[in-house]
Design a protein that fits this description.
Strand content: under 5%
Number of domains: 1
Shape: flat
Order of helices and strands: EHHEH
Structural class: mainly alpha
Length: 88
Amino acid sequence: MCRNIKPLFNFDPPATDDEIHDAALQFVRKVSGTTKPSKRNEVAFEHAVSSIAACARELLDSLETSQPPRDREEVAAKARARTAVRFA
């Protein structure tokens, strides 16, 4: 799907509303095929982003796991290491 959408579940601290909004925005951009909607489509675009963000928040709040929460810094460090190897 979209490489910019990152997993948001089971992190300590939990995903913020801004992170969820950003993921919803990336999803709507991908589905609509545009990064900035025309004035005519702006309301529909923003409505879709807010609806998807609300659904994503509901999903994240209802998911359960027996795994311990992942550390954001540790996951980011692993991603940076993979990037360094990939583009070295």
